[in-house]
Specification:
2 domains, elongated, binds magnesium ion, binds adenosine-5'-triphosphate, 22 helices, five-stranded parallel beta sheet, alpha/beta, 39% helix, Rossmann fold
Length: 510
């Protein structure tokens, strides 16, 4: 008596189909589970045994062997419980084998036979659909996120008994349905935050507009209360609306992290602002059974590191690689896991401990203290920021003055134009934004005439800039030209781009 059910696990951010085989034979009543199992999966044995008993399934005393394959992938978590119980019941002849053929089954069992929610349902259902499964049985609480995938029937269930009845066609459950168009529409409603609330700050707003247009990383330096945090929080309001595919991509990551709410989809661009006490693994991902970190939870949105120098130096240095590659790779003994990390990094900081350097009327820090504070940010990390701006406090008279400030909507419209230029230019190139240009593609797409070349070379000589800085200026100039709807990069574009490099000279230069 042998039966097979299908379940799945998460590998990186993808679902991986796992077959669950159960064999019943004569012999001592022993229940064995094999197939490269983590400790939680080993404990499934007890949960399944008790849950079967408490659900009223009395099984004859036989030898039970359950095998999870493929054998070369370590199975972790509680997601297989339900499929193991079902495979055993089928092997005992309580469910016809053919009823399990094109169904994927996931869920954790409680001892009383009820089914608990699990993480990663969205990517699992997505993989099941891709591999041609017709149906998925998932915990009731996860049904919505599963149904989001579409083109596969998703049944939300709450007890083992119910699942058996469903598989034996004794009861009918309607597959879960999610009206994607409707939830996307309701999401278009107004954001609570808007750039029109920020008085003045013209220069900072301009730099933010450029940064968002080309997905450039941005660093803001300024004294306390100058509005750095306020500005950063409004960045998602000028980013393009999420497409369904983007929403799905982000939602998969949240599903694995167990952070999807009842809606089943993330509908807004992420804005993640982890506190500076965060650990390395919480920031970039990790753990025994690797989970995505903040840099992945911010994928396709903004990762905001407020008070940058307060972060553990080691923690932020670990970010350097993911920022460059747009993915996080975590290596474990037998496998390596990849999580997406396509973020726009925005950081804010004070220039010194008291916050008011270089205003000598208010800052008493010695030059050495200032240097030590600034040097918490290493040069290579500093190099990751394409734009560096100073946020200066707005005078209270200006705050009072009822000036008409531009709304996020208006800024977003211009950004849309710059994005359209990039989409057109990089069609079929695997490049989405100017910030992603490699040194070689910079040569192709950021051509300069002699006059422009000379201007940039002179600036680099004068400011003693590295090759990396040179490339960053070119990429930013490309974005500024795109905002201008100009295929040519002219001197005006170059000079503005140079300005965004000159600030790190002011603070970090000798
Ligand atoms: N340009 C502005 N327009 C309107 N309000 C502002 C502006 N700048 C600052 N404020 C007000 O000041 C408050 C403090 O700003 P914010 O917290 O963004 O400063 P910060 O630069 O992040 O300071 P810190 O360095 O102390 O973190 C804001 O919540 C807002 O009420
Ligand atoms: Mg702040
Ligand atoms: Zn100071």
């Amino acid at each position: 008596m042998f039966s097979k059910a299908y379940s799945a696990t998460i590998h990186g951010i993808d679902g991986l189909i796992v077959s669950v085989e159960a064999d019943i034979s004569e012999g001592l009543p022993i229940f064995d589970m094999v197939g490269y199992l983590g400790s939680e999966v080993k404990e499934a044995r007890e949960r399944v045994r008790v849950a079967l008993k408490n659900s009223g399934f009395r099984l004859p005393p036989k030898r039970i062997t359950v095998n999870l394959s493929p054998a070369d992938i370590r199975k972790e978590g509680t997601v297989f419980d339900l499929a193991v119980a079902i495979a055993i019941l089928a092997a005992f002849g309580r469910i016809p084998d053919e009823n399990l053929k094109d169904i994927l089954i996931i869920g954790e069992l409680s001892l009383d036979g009820s089914i608990r929610k699990v993480n990663g349902v969205l990517p699992i259902v997505y993989s099941a659909q891709q591999q041609g499964f017709a149906k998925c049985i998932v915990p009731k609480e996860n049904a919505k996120e599963g149904a989001v995938v579409g083109n596969i029937e998703v049944y939300g269930v709450s007890s083992l008994k119910e699942v058996v009845a469903l598989l034996n066609k004794e009861i009918d459950i309607a597959p879960e349905y999610v009206d994607i168009i409707k939830i996307f529409k309701t999401n278009q409603e107004e954001d609570e935050l808007d750039f029109s609330e920020v008085a003045g700050q013209k220069a900072a707003k301009r730099a933010i507009e450029i940064a968002v247009s080309g997905m450039h990383n941005l660093l803001m330096i300024g004294p306390p209360g100058s509005g750095k945090t306020m500005l950063a929080k409004r960045i998602p309001t000028i980013m393009p609306e999420l497409s369904f595919d983007e929403s799905l991509e982000i939602s998969k990551i949240y599903s694995i992290a167990g952070l999807l709410d009842q809606e089943g989809l993330i509908l807004k661009r992420p804005f993640r602002a982890p506190h500076h006490t965060i650990t390395t693994s919480a920031l970039v991902g990790g753990g025994h059974n690797p989970k995505p970190g903040e840099v992945s939870l911010a994928h396709l949105g903004v990762l905001f590191l407020d008070e940058l120098p307060e972060f553990h130096k080691k923690t932020i240095e670990v970010l350097r690689q993911p920022l460059e590659d747009k993915t996080v790779t975590i290596s474990r003994l037998n496998a390596s896991f990849r999580f997406p990390a396509g973020v726009m990094l925005v950081a804010a900081m004070n220039p010194c401990n008291c916050g008011f350097y270089p205003d000598r009327n208010r800052c008493n820090c010695s030059i050495n203290e200032v240097k030590r504070y600034l040097n918490r940010i290493s040069q290579p990390l500093l190099d990751r920021f394409d734009l560096c701006i100073e946020a200066l406090p707005v005078k209270y008279q200006d705050l009072d003055r009822k000036m008409e400030e531009e709304s996020s909507e208006e800024i977003r419209r211009r950004i849309h134009g710059a994005r359209a230029m990039q989409i057109e230019r990089y069609r079929g190139q695997n490049i989405l934004f100017n910030s992603q240009l490699s040194p070689r593609s910079i040569k192709n797409y950021c051509n300069l005439d002699n006059k422009e070349k000379k201007l940039l070379e002179q600036a680099c000589d004068k400011m003693n800039l590295s090759a990396r800085a040179y490339h960053r200026i070119l990429k930013v100039a490309r974005t500024i030209a795109d905002l201008d709807q100009s295929e040519l990069i002219n001197c005006k574009h170059i000079s503005e781009a140079i300005c965004y490099r000159s600030l790190d000279q002011k603070y970090w230069g000798d």
